[in-house]
Protein backbone atom coordinates (compact mmCIF):
# COMPACT_ATOMS: atom_id res chain seq x y z
CA UNK A 1 0.00 0.00 0.00
CA UNK A 2 2.96 2.35 0.59
CA UNK A 3 4.24 1.57 -2.90
CA UNK A 4 0.89 2.19 -4.59
CA UNK A 5 0.29 5.33 -2.51
CA UNK A 6 3.40 6.83 -4.09
CA UNK A 7 2.45 5.40 -7.52
CA UNK A 8 -1.02 7.00 -7.45
CA UNK A 9 0.35 10.26 -6.05
CA UNK A 10 2.85 10.62 -8.89
CA UNK A 11 0.23 9.61 -11.41
CA UNK A 12 -1.79 12.69 -10.46
CA UNK A 13 1.37 14.81 -10.15
CA UNK A 14 3.02 14.23 -13.53
CA UNK A 15 -0.02 13.70 -15.78
CA UNK A 16 -0.33 17.44 -16.40
CA UNK A 17 3.07 17.63 -18.11
CA UNK A 18 1.74 15.34 -20.87
CA UNK A 19 -1.90 16.43 -20.83
CA UNK A 20 -1.09 20.07 -21.47
CA UNK A 21 0.49 19.15 -24.82
CA UNK A 22 -2.94 17.95 -25.96
CA UNK A 23 -4.85 20.71 -24.18
CA UNK A 24 -2.80 23.45 -25.87
CA UNK A 25 -1.71 22.01 -29.24
CA UNK A 26 1.25 23.74 -30.88
CA UNK A 27 1.02 24.22 -34.64
CA UNK A 28 4.81 24.44 -34.96
CA UNK A 29 6.08 20.96 -35.72
CA UNK A 30 9.80 21.44 -35.16
CA UNK A 31 12.31 23.80 -33.63
CA UNK A 32 16.06 23.84 -33.99
CA UNK A 33 18.58 24.37 -31.22
CA UNK A 34 22.19 25.29 -31.87
CA UNK A 35 24.56 22.91 -30.10
CA UNK A 36 28.32 22.90 -29.75
CA UNK A 37 28.47 19.40 -31.18
CA UNK A 38 26.63 20.63 -34.26
CA UNK A 39 29.18 23.39 -34.72
CA UNK A 40 32.14 21.01 -34.66
CA UNK A 41 30.51 18.23 -36.66
CA UNK A 42 31.82 17.02 -39.99
CA UNK A 43 30.26 18.36 -43.16
CA UNK A 44 29.32 14.94 -44.52
CA UNK A 45 25.65 13.99 -44.48
CA UNK A 46 26.07 11.11 -42.04
CA UNK A 47 27.58 13.34 -39.39
CA UNK A 48 24.93 15.98 -39.93
CA UNK A 49 22.21 13.39 -39.44
CA UNK A 50 23.65 12.58 -36.02
CA UNK A 51 24.54 16.01 -34.69
CA UNK A 52 21.88 18.37 -36.02
CA UNK A 53 19.52 19.24 -33.20
CA UNK A 54 16.02 18.97 -34.60
CA UNK A 55 13.47 18.64 -31.84
CA UNK A 56 10.14 17.34 -33.05
CA UNK A 57 7.06 18.50 -31.19
CA UNK A 58 4.67 15.59 -31.27
CA UNK A 59 1.11 16.58 -32.14
CA UNK A 60 -1.19 14.14 -30.38
CA UNK A 61 -4.16 13.05 -32.49
CA UNK A 62 -7.45 13.29 -30.62
CA UNK A 63 -11.06 12.36 -31.40
CA UNK A 64 -13.15 14.96 -33.22
CA UNK A 65 -14.85 17.59 -31.13
CA UNK A 66 -12.28 17.68 -28.31
CA UNK A 67 -11.97 21.16 -26.81
CA UNK A 68 -8.50 22.72 -26.88
CA UNK A 69 -7.17 26.02 -25.54
CA UNK A 70 -5.04 28.89 -26.77
CA UNK A 71 -3.13 29.59 -23.58
CA UNK A 72 0.12 31.54 -23.69
CA UNK A 73 3.42 30.03 -22.58
CA UNK A 74 3.19 32.01 -19.34
CA UNK A 75 -0.32 30.73 -18.63
CA UNK A 76 0.83 27.16 -19.26
CA UNK A 77 3.71 27.72 -16.83
CA UNK A 78 1.22 28.77 -14.14
CA UNK A 79 -0.79 25.59 -14.75
CA UNK A 80 2.31 23.41 -14.51
CA UNK A 81 3.79 25.12 -11.45
CA UNK A 82 0.59 25.48 -9.40
CA UNK A 83 0.96 21.97 -7.97
CA UNK A 84 4.50 22.51 -6.72
CA UNK A 85 3.76 25.78 -4.92
CA UNK A 86 1.07 24.02 -2.92
CA UNK A 87 3.26 20.99 -2.32
CA UNK A 88 6.09 23.10 -0.90
CA UNK A 89 3.79 24.64 1.73
CA UNK A 90 2.23 21.55 3.30
CA UNK A 91 5.23 19.23 3.16
CA UNK A 92 6.60 21.17 6.15
CA UNK A 93 3.60 20.40 8.37
CA UNK A 94 2.43 17.09 6.89
CA UNK A 95 4.34 14.94 9.36
CA UNK A 96 3.08 16.80 12.41
CA UNK A 97 -0.50 16.58 11.13
CA UNK A 98 -0.12 12.82 10.67
CA UNK A 99 1.23 12.39 14.20
CA UNK A 100 -1.62 14.44 15.69
CA UNK A 101 -4.53 13.02 13.68
CA UNK A 102 -3.16 9.70 12.45
CA UNK A 103 -1.44 8.97 9.13
CA UNK A 104 -4.32 6.75 7.99
CA UNK A 105 -6.81 9.62 8.24
CA UNK A 106 -4.47 12.24 6.79
CA UNK A 107 -3.50 10.15 3.76
CA UNK A 108 -7.10 9.11 3.06
CA UNK A 109 -8.54 12.64 3.20
CA UNK A 110 -5.76 14.32 1.21
CA UNK A 111 -5.63 11.63 -1.47
CA UNK A 112 -9.42 11.70 -1.83
CA UNK A 113 -9.31 15.48 -2.29
CA UNK A 114 -6.61 15.05 -4.96
CA UNK A 115 -8.66 12.34 -6.71
CA UNK A 116 -11.83 14.45 -6.82
CA UNK A 117 -10.03 17.57 -8.05
CA UNK A 118 -8.12 15.57 -10.68
CA UNK A 119 -11.44 14.23 -11.97
CA UNK A 120 -12.87 17.77 -12.06
CA UNK A 121 -9.81 19.27 -13.78
CA UNK A 122 -11.32 19.20 -17.32
CA UNK A 123 -14.31 21.24 -16.12
CA UNK A 124 -11.98 23.61 -14.29
CA UNK A 125 -9.96 24.15 -17.46
CA UNK A 126 -13.10 24.96 -19.46
CA UNK A 127 -14.13 27.60 -16.92
CA UNK A 128 -10.78 29.45 -16.92
CA UNK A 129 -7.13 28.54 -16.81
CA UNK A 130 -6.82 30.16 -13.34
CA UNK A 131 -9.52 27.82 -12.03
CA UNK A 132 -7.33 24.93 -13.18
CA UNK A 133 -4.30 26.58 -11.54
CA UNK A 134 -6.30 26.79 -8.31
CA UNK A 135 -7.28 23.12 -8.56
CA UNK A 136 -3.67 22.10 -9.17
CA UNK A 137 -2.56 24.26 -6.22
CA UNK A 138 -5.01 22.48 -3.89
CA UNK A 139 -3.92 19.08 -5.27
CA UNK A 140 -0.34 20.09 -4.44
CA UNK A 141 -1.40 21.20 -0.95
CA UNK A 142 -2.99 17.79 -0.41
CA UNK A 143 -0.03 15.88 -1.83
CA UNK A 144 2.40 17.64 0.50
CA UNK A 145 0.99 15.63 3.41
CA UNK A 146 1.61 12.24 1.79
CA UNK A 147 5.30 11.41 2.23
CA UNK A 148 5.68 12.75 5.80
CA UNK A 149 2.52 10.80 6.75
CA UNK A 150 3.85 7.61 5.13
CA UNK A 151 7.12 7.96 7.06
CA UNK A 152 5.08 8.27 10.25
CA UNK A 153 3.33 5.04 9.27
CA UNK A 154 6.63 3.27 8.57
CA UNK A 155 7.83 4.14 12.07
CA UNK A 156 4.91 2.18 13.57
CA UNK A 157 4.97 -0.81 11.22
CA UNK A 158 8.52 -1.51 10.07
CA UNK A 159 10.77 -3.73 12.21
CA UNK A 160 14.39 -2.49 12.09
CA UNK A 161 15.52 -5.53 10.10
CA UNK A 162 12.91 -4.82 7.40
CA UNK A 163 12.96 -1.02 7.29
CA UNK A 164 15.00 -0.97 4.07
CA UNK A 165 12.27 -2.58 2.00
CA UNK A 166 9.61 -0.36 3.59
CA UNK A 167 11.50 2.81 2.68
CA UNK A 168 12.27 1.46 -0.80
CA UNK A 169 8.53 1.12 -1.35
CA UNK A 170 8.27 4.91 -0.96
CA UNK A 171 10.05 5.26 -4.32
CA UNK A 172 7.04 3.75 -6.10
CA UNK A 173 6.48 7.18 -7.59
CA UNK A 174 9.21 6.40 -10.12
CA UNK A 175 7.12 3.58 -11.55
CA UNK A 176 4.03 5.78 -11.42
CA UNK A 177 5.88 8.39 -13.49
CA UNK A 178 7.01 5.88 -16.12
CA UNK A 179 3.59 4.24 -16.44
CA UNK A 180 1.76 7.57 -16.63
CA UNK A 181 4.07 8.98 -19.29
CA UNK A 182 3.79 5.77 -21.30
CA UNK A 183 0.00 5.35 -21.20
CA UNK A 184 -1.24 8.95 -21.26
CA UNK A 185 -0.44 9.36 -24.97
CA UNK A 186 -2.55 6.39 -26.14
CA UNK A 187 -5.40 7.42 -23.82
CA UNK A 188 -5.43 10.96 -25.26
CA UNK A 189 -5.28 9.75 -28.85
CA UNK A 190 -8.17 7.30 -28.39
CA UNK A 191 -10.45 9.12 -25.95
CA UNK A 192 -9.27 12.74 -25.67
CA UNK A 193 -7.35 14.58 -22.97
CA UNK A 194 -10.36 14.64 -20.59
CA UNK A 195 -9.91 10.93 -19.95
CA UNK A 196 -6.26 11.48 -19.05
CA UNK A 197 -7.71 13.16 -15.94
CA UNK A 198 -10.75 10.93 -15.42
CA UNK A 199 -8.81 7.65 -15.38
CA UNK A 200 -6.17 8.69 -12.77
CA UNK A 201 -8.93 10.27 -10.68
CA UNK A 202 -10.98 7.06 -10.76
CA UNK A 203 -7.96 4.88 -9.94
CA UNK A 204 -7.07 7.16 -7.02
CA UNK A 205 -10.65 6.99 -5.69
CA UNK A 206 -10.62 3.17 -5.78
CA UNK A 207 -7.21 3.21 -4.08
CA UNK A 208 -8.61 5.42 -1.28
CA UNK A 209 -11.31 2.83 -0.57
CA UNK A 210 -8.71 0.05 -0.38
CA UNK A 211 -6.49 2.19 1.84
CA UNK A 212 -9.30 2.81 4.33
CA UNK A 213 -10.15 -0.88 4.51
CA UNK A 214 -6.62 -2.31 4.65
CA UNK A 215 -4.42 0.22 6.47
CA UNK A 216 -4.35 1.20 10.15
CA UNK A 217 -2.03 3.48 12.08
CA UNK A 218 -0.32 0.73 14.06
CA UNK A 219 -0.36 -3.06 14.57
CA UNK A 220 -2.17 -2.52 17.90
CA UNK A 221 -5.10 -0.85 16.13
CA UNK A 222 -5.44 -3.24 13.19
CA UNK A 223 -8.49 -5.50 13.69
CA UNK A 224 -7.39 -8.35 11.42
CA UNK A 225 -3.69 -8.77 12.20
CA UNK A 226 -2.64 -12.08 13.74
CA UNK A 227 -1.37 -12.07 17.33
CA UNK A 228 1.90 -13.62 16.17
CA UNK A 229 2.62 -10.88 13.63
CA UNK A 230 1.57 -8.12 16.02
CA UNK A 231 3.82 -9.46 18.75
CA UNK A 232 6.74 -9.77 16.32
CA UNK A 233 6.45 -6.16 15.14
CA UNK A 234 5.99 -4.71 18.63
CA UNK A 235 8.92 -6.62 20.10
CA UNK A 236 11.16 -5.73 17.15
CA UNK A 237 10.41 -2.00 17.37
CA UNK A 238 10.55 -1.92 21.15
CA UNK A 239 9.79 1.22 23.14
CA UNK A 240 11.19 3.62 20.54
CA UNK A 241 7.67 4.14 19.18
CA UNK A 242 4.55 4.79 21.23
CA UNK A 243 2.09 2.08 20.18
CA UNK A 244 -0.57 2.90 22.77
CA UNK A 245 -4.20 2.43 21.79
CA UNK A 246 -5.11 5.51 23.83
CA UNK A 247 -5.58 8.93 22.22
CA UNK A 248 -2.03 10.24 22.75
CA UNK A 249 -1.70 13.34 20.63
CA UNK A 250 1.77 14.49 21.54
CA UNK A 251 3.00 17.80 20.16
CA UNK A 252 6.53 17.24 18.79
CA UNK A 253 9.32 18.80 20.88
CA UNK A 254 10.19 21.41 18.26
CA UNK A 255 12.81 23.15 20.39
CA UNK A 256 14.70 19.90 20.91
CA UNK A 257 14.30 18.98 17.25
CA UNK A 258 15.51 22.29 15.82
CA UNK A 259 18.48 22.46 18.21
CA UNK A 260 19.51 18.85 17.63
CA UNK A 261 22.84 18.64 15.83
CA UNK A 262 22.15 15.11 14.44
CA UNK A 263 18.83 16.33 13.03
CA UNK A 264 20.48 19.33 11.38
CA UNK A 265 23.06 16.98 9.86
CA UNK A 266 20.21 14.89 8.43
CA UNK A 267 18.57 18.03 7.00
CA UNK A 268 21.85 18.99 5.31
CA UNK A 269 22.15 15.49 3.86
CA UNK A 270 18.57 15.55 2.60
CA UNK A 271 19.00 18.99 1.04
CA UNK A 272 22.13 17.82 -0.77
CA UNK A 273 20.20 14.80 -2.01
CA UNK A 274 17.34 16.93 -3.38
CA UNK A 275 19.78 19.43 -4.88
CA UNK A 276 21.64 16.70 -6.74
CA UNK A 277 18.46 14.97 -7.88
CA UNK A 278 16.97 18.17 -9.27
CA UNK A 279 20.16 18.78 -11.21
CA UNK A 280 20.07 15.28 -12.66
CA UNK A 281 16.35 15.46 -13.47
CA UNK A 282 16.27 18.97 -14.94
CA UNK A 283 19.72 20.25 -15.89
CA UNK A 284 21.12 16.98 -17.25
CA UNK A 285 18.42 16.38 -19.92
CA UNK A 286 18.69 20.03 -20.97
CA UNK A 287 22.47 19.63 -21.31
CA UNK A 288 22.07 16.53 -23.46
CA UNK A 289 19.59 18.42 -25.65
CA UNK A 290 21.23 21.86 -25.93
CA UNK A 291 24.92 21.00 -25.78
CA UNK A 292 24.94 17.57 -27.44
CA UNK A 293 21.98 17.96 -29.80
CA UNK A 294 20.20 14.85 -28.55
CA UNK A 295 16.54 15.10 -27.52
CA UNK A 296 16.31 12.82 -24.52
CA UNK A 297 12.63 13.52 -23.84
CA UNK A 298 11.59 12.45 -27.33
CA UNK A 299 12.48 8.85 -26.56
CA UNK A 300 10.19 7.51 -23.88
CA UNK A 301 12.38 4.52 -23.02
CA UNK A 302 15.52 6.58 -22.55
CA UNK A 303 13.79 9.28 -20.53
CA UNK A 304 12.39 6.69 -18.13
CA UNK A 305 15.69 4.83 -17.59
CA UNK A 306 16.98 7.07 -14.75
CA UNK A 307 13.71 6.71 -12.81
CA UNK A 308 13.61 2.96 -13.29
CA UNK A 309 17.27 2.69 -12.27
CA UNK A 310 16.65 4.59 -9.03
CA UNK A 311 13.71 2.34 -8.15
CA UNK A 312 15.60 -0.89 -8.93
CA UNK A 313 18.76 0.18 -7.13
CA UNK A 314 16.73 1.28 -4.10
CA UNK A 315 15.31 -2.23 -3.78
CA UNK A 316 18.81 -3.71 -4.00
CA UNK A 317 20.29 -1.30 -1.48
CA UNK A 318 17.28 -1.73 0.81
CA UNK A 319 17.75 -5.51 0.83
CA UNK A 320 21.47 -5.08 1.55
CA UNK A 321 20.72 -2.72 4.42
CA UNK A 322 18.16 -5.10 5.93
CA UNK A 323 20.68 -7.92 5.73
CA UNK A 324 23.31 -5.84 7.50
CA UNK A 325 20.89 -4.90 10.29
CA UNK A 326 19.69 -8.48 10.70
CA UNK A 327 23.24 -9.83 10.95
CA UNK A 328 24.30 -6.92 13.17
CA UNK A 329 27.50 -6.60 11.13
CA UNK A 330 28.10 -2.91 11.83
CA UNK A 331 26.42 -0.15 13.83
CA UNK A 332 23.50 1.80 12.38
CA UNK A 333 25.60 4.98 12.42
CA UNK A 334 28.41 3.37 10.43
CA UNK A 335 25.95 1.99 7.85
CA UNK A 336 24.25 5.37 7.34
CA UNK A 337 27.59 7.11 6.83
CA UNK A 338 29.12 4.41 4.63
CA UNK A 339 26.24 4.32 2.17
CA UNK A 340 26.50 8.10 1.70
CA UNK A 341 29.35 7.16 -0.63
CA UNK A 342 26.77 5.55 -2.95
CA UNK A 343 23.80 7.88 -2.41
CA UNK A 344 25.69 11.19 -2.61
CA UNK A 345 29.41 11.01 -3.41
CA UNK A 346 29.26 8.66 -6.41
CA UNK A 347 26.32 10.51 -8.06
CA UNK A 348 28.22 13.76 -7.54
CA UNK A 349 31.31 12.37 -9.26
CA UNK A 350 29.17 11.14 -12.15
CA UNK A 351 27.71 14.64 -12.49
CA UNK A 352 31.21 16.06 -12.83
CA UNK A 353 32.04 13.42 -15.43
CA UNK A 354 28.92 14.45 -17.37
CA UNK A 355 30.60 17.75 -18.24
CA UNK A 356 33.50 15.94 -19.90
CA UNK A 357 31.69 13.38 -22.05
CA UNK A 358 32.24 15.31 -25.27
CA UNK A 359 29.84 14.70 -28.14
CA UNK A 360 28.71 11.31 -26.81
CA UNK A 361 24.99 11.41 -25.98
CA UNK A 362 24.69 7.70 -25.19
CA UNK A 363 27.52 7.96 -22.65
CA UNK A 364 25.81 11.01 -21.16
CA UNK A 365 22.53 9.12 -20.83
CA UNK A 366 24.41 6.25 -19.16
CA UNK A 367 25.99 8.63 -16.63
CA UNK A 368 22.62 10.23 -15.88
CA UNK A 369 21.05 6.79 -15.42
CA UNK A 370 23.76 5.52 -13.08
CA UNK A 371 23.80 8.78 -11.15
CA UNK A 372 20.07 8.41 -10.45
CA UNK A 373 20.46 4.68 -9.87
CA UNK A 374 23.24 5.06 -7.33
CA UNK A 375 21.10 7.56 -5.46
CA UNK A 376 18.77 4.64 -4.73
CA UNK A 377 21.08 4.10 -1.75
CA UNK A 378 19.31 7.11 -0.20
CA UNK A 379 16.94 4.48 1.24
CA UNK A 380 19.79 3.74 3.67
CA UNK A 381 20.85 7.35 4.31
CA UNK A 382 18.76 10.53 4.22
CA UNK A 383 15.43 8.77 3.52
CA UNK A 384 15.64 6.70 6.70
CA UNK A 385 17.89 8.56 9.16
CA UNK A 386 14.93 10.42 10.70
CA UNK A 387 13.53 6.98 11.60
CA UNK A 388 16.73 6.37 13.59
CA UNK A 389 16.75 9.71 15.37
CA UNK A 390 13.13 9.86 16.53
CA UNK A 391 10.68 7.26 15.19
CA UNK A 392 7.90 8.76 17.34
CA UNK A 393 8.27 11.99 15.35
CA UNK A 394 9.56 10.55 12.07
CA UNK A 395 6.83 12.29 10.08
CA UNK A 396 7.63 15.69 11.57
CA UNK A 397 11.37 15.28 11.01
CA UNK A 398 10.92 14.17 7.42
CA UNK A 399 8.38 16.92 6.74
CA UNK A 400 10.76 19.64 7.91
CA UNK A 401 13.70 18.17 6.02
CA UNK A 402 11.70 17.64 2.83
CA UNK A 403 10.11 21.09 3.03
CA UNK A 404 13.58 22.66 3.18
CA UNK A 405 14.90 20.26 0.54
CA UNK A 406 12.14 21.15 -1.90
CA UNK A 407 13.51 24.69 -2.18
CA UNK A 408 16.26 23.17 -4.29
CA UNK A 409 13.66 22.72 -7.01
CA UNK A 410 13.29 26.50 -7.25
CA UNK A 411 17.01 27.29 -6.94
CA UNK A 412 18.59 24.82 -9.36
CA UNK A 413 16.89 26.23 -12.51
CA UNK A 414 18.18 29.69 -11.54
CA UNK A 415 21.72 28.36 -11.16
CA UNK A 416 21.50 26.64 -14.53
CA UNK A 417 20.15 29.78 -16.19
CA UNK A 418 22.93 31.90 -14.65
CA UNK A 419 25.77 29.80 -16.02
CA UNK A 420 24.22 29.15 -19.45
CA UNK A 421 22.90 32.65 -20.17
CA UNK A 422 25.71 33.30 -22.68
CA UNK A 423 25.73 29.92 -24.42
CA UNK A 424 25.17 26.18 -24.22
CA UNK A 425 28.69 24.92 -24.79
CA UNK A 426 30.71 22.60 -22.59
CA UNK A 427 32.51 25.55 -20.97
CA UNK A 428 29.19 26.99 -19.76
CA UNK A 429 27.78 23.68 -18.58
CA UNK A 430 30.76 22.42 -16.56
CA UNK A 431 30.26 24.97 -13.74
CA UNK A 432 26.61 23.89 -13.60
CA UNK A 433 27.58 20.29 -12.90
CA UNK A 434 30.40 21.28 -10.56
CA UNK A 435 27.86 23.26 -8.52
CA UNK A 436 25.40 20.37 -8.40
CA UNK A 437 28.12 17.88 -7.52
CA UNK A 438 29.66 20.10 -4.85
CA UNK A 439 26.49 20.22 -2.74
CA UNK A 440 25.90 16.50 -3.32
CA UNK A 441 29.37 15.66 -1.97
CA UNK A 442 29.66 18.41 0.67
CA UNK A 443 26.40 17.38 2.32
CA UNK A 444 27.65 13.79 2.55
CA UNK A 445 30.95 14.93 4.11
CA UNK A 446 29.04 17.02 6.65
CA UNK A 447 26.83 14.08 7.61
CA UNK A 448 29.78 11.70 7.84
CA UNK A 449 31.40 14.12 10.30
CA UNK A 450 28.36 15.06 12.40
CA UNK A 451 25.52 12.62 11.66
CA UNK A 452 24.44 9.63 13.74
CA UNK A 453 22.04 6.70 13.69
CA UNK A 454 21.41 6.73 17.45
CA UNK A 455 17.89 7.37 18.71
CA UNK A 456 17.74 10.73 20.50
CA UNK A 457 16.57 11.18 24.06
CA UNK A 458 13.74 13.55 23.09
CA UNK A 459 12.10 10.76 21.06
CA UNK A 460 10.90 8.87 24.11
CA UNK A 461 7.45 9.48 25.60
CA UNK A 462 7.14 8.24 29.19
CA UNK A 463 3.64 7.09 30.14
CA UNK A 464 4.47 7.46 33.79
CA UNK A 465 7.15 9.20 35.81
CA UNK A 466 8.40 5.95 37.32
CA UNK A 467 9.43 4.69 33.89
CA UNK A 468 11.92 7.54 33.51
CA UNK A 469 14.83 5.33 34.50
CA UNK A 470 13.84 2.70 31.90
CA UNK A 471 14.64 4.92 28.95
CA UNK A 472 17.95 4.14 27.25
CA UNK A 473 20.29 7.07 26.87
CA UNK A 474 21.00 8.65 23.49
CA UNK A 475 24.44 7.03 23.51
CA UNK A 476 23.21 3.61 24.52
CA UNK A 477 23.95 0.67 22.23
CA UNK A 478 21.66 -1.70 24.10
CA UNK A 479 18.83 -2.71 21.76
CA UNK A 480 17.26 -5.32 24.04
CA UNK A 481 13.88 -3.99 25.14
CA UNK A 482 11.05 -5.52 27.13
CA UNK A 483 7.66 -3.97 26.46
CA UNK A 484 4.23 -4.57 27.91
CA UNK A 485 1.59 -5.32 25.30
CA UNK A 486 -2.04 -4.88 26.21
CA UNK A 487 -4.48 -6.94 24.20
TrEMBL record:
<protein>
    <submittedName>
        <fullName>Putative inorganic phosphate cotransporter</fullName>
    </submittedName>
</protein>
<feature type="transmembrane region" description="Helical">
    <location>
        <begin position="254"/>
        <end position="272"/>
    </location>
</feature>
<feature type="transmembrane region" description="Helical">
    <location>
        <begin position="77"/>
        <end position="98"/>
    </location>
</feature>
<dbReference type="GO" id="GO:0006820">
    <property type="term" value="P:monoatomic anion transport"/>
</dbReference>
<keyword id="KW-0472">Membrane</keyword>
<feature type="transmembrane region" description="Helical">
    <location>
        <begin position="166"/>
        <end position="183"/>
    </location>
</feature>
<feature type="transmembrane region" description="Helical">
    <location>
        <begin position="431"/>
        <end position="450"/>
    </location>
</feature>
<keyword id="KW-0813">Transport</keyword>
<keyword id="KW-0769">Symport</keyword>
<feature type="transmembrane region" description="Helical">
    <location>
        <begin position="131"/>
        <end position="154"/>
    </location>
</feature>
<feature type="transmembrane region" description="Helical">
    <location>
        <begin position="195"/>
        <end position="216"/>
    </location>
</feature>
<feature type="transmembrane region" description="Helical">
    <location>
        <begin position="396"/>
        <end position="419"/>
    </location>
</feature>
<dbReference type="InterPro" id="IPR050382">
    <property type="entry name" value="MFS_Na/Anion_cotransporter"/>
</dbReference>
<dbReference type="GO" id="GO:0016020">
    <property type="term" value="C:membrane"/>
</dbReference>
<dbReference type="InterPro" id="IPR020846">
    <property type="entry name" value="MFS_dom"/>
</dbReference>
<dbReference type="InterPro" id="IPR036259">
    <property type="entry name" value="MFS_trans_sf"/>
</dbReference>
<feature type="transmembrane region" description="Helical">
    <location>
        <begin position="362"/>
        <end position="384"/>
    </location>
</feature>
<dbReference type="GO" id="GO:0015293">
    <property type="term" value="F:symporter activity"/>
</dbReference>
<dbReference type="InterPro" id="IPR011701">
    <property type="entry name" value="MFS"/>
</dbReference>
<keyword id="KW-1133">Transmembrane helix</keyword>
<feature type="transmembrane region" description="Helical">
    <location>
        <begin position="307"/>
        <end position="325"/>
    </location>
</feature>
<feature type="domain" description="Major facilitator superfamily (MFS) profile">
    <location>
        <begin position="1"/>
        <end position="455"/>
    </location>
</feature>
<feature type="transmembrane region" description="Helical">
    <location>
        <begin position="337"/>
        <end position="356"/>
    </location>
</feature>
<feature type="compositionally biased region" description="Polar residues">
    <location>
        <begin position="473"/>
        <end position="487"/>
    </location>
</feature>
<feature type="region of interest" description="Disordered">
    <location>
        <begin position="464"/>
        <end position="487"/>
    </location>
</feature>
<dbReference type="Pfam" id="PF07690">
    <property type="entry name" value="MFS_1"/>
</dbReference>
<keyword id="KW-0812">Transmembrane</keyword>
Amino acid sequence: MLFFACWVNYMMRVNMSVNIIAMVPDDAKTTSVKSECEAIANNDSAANNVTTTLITKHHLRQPDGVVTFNWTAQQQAYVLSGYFWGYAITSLVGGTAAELWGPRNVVFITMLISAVLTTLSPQAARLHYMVLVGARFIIGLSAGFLFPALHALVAHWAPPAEKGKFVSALLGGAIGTVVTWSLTGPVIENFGWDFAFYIPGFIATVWCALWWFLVYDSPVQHPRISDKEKQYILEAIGDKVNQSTKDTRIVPPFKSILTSFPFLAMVVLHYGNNWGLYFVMTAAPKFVSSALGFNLTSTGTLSSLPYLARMIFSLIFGAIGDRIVKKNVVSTTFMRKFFCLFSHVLPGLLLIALGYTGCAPILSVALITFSMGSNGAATLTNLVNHQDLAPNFAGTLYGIANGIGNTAGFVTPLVTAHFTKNGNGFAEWRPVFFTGASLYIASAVYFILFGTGVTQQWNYIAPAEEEEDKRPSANSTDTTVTIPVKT
